[in-house]
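I am writing to request your help with a piece of structural work I have in hand. I am sending you one protein, given as its amino acid sequence and as whole-number tokens for its backbone shapes. Kindly check, if you would, that the fold set down in the tokens agrees with what the sequence suggests. You will find the record immediately after this paragraph:
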Amino acid sequence: MLNSVTGHGTDETPFLGKLKPARKKRALLAVAAIALLAGGTVLGTTLPDPRSSDAYLALAGEEAAAKSERDSAQTDYQSMKSKYDTLQNGNAAREAKLTAREFEVGKADAAVKTADAAVKIREDAVTGAEKTKAANTIADGTWTVGKDLEAGTYRATADVGSSCYWGIYATGSNGSNIIDNDLPGGGRPSVALAGGQDFKSSRCGKWEKQ
């Protein structure tokens, strides 16, 4: 449309024609922003809330279920870990007790071995003494000194009765060469025997070398 004064055409925004290019660009951007804001306001009031859609609700449900499963798994893990730690601690305590018992058993075993060795020494000593005593002990009978018994002094191991008789003879005389004899009648008689002699004991019991 023509201006009656200037003869130039007019538009709806006559002030924009008078602005410099940079200011004109900024003004156009401002107008566009206002228009978008107004349009967005209108759209916001007319579009449905996406959070109320079936898809959103389904996803939200899946998320809640996943969180619940995660929390349950964490709870189970903590429970199992606690039991495991308890078992580990219990095992450590049992192993310590077992080690202590093994140590005590070892000590006891060593003590038993020491005692056994001591008993063996005593037994050997007793056995040796008994063997020596047996070798130096004679009973009723006729014995040759140097062959059946050693020379030395022998004494009755117990009191003799009235029927006890002992005699010392020259070896090989068959009892005809009497060196000494006696009927003690009691007590514990003793005799001195030397090589080349036979000793005879009747009803006198045992004689032991002194």
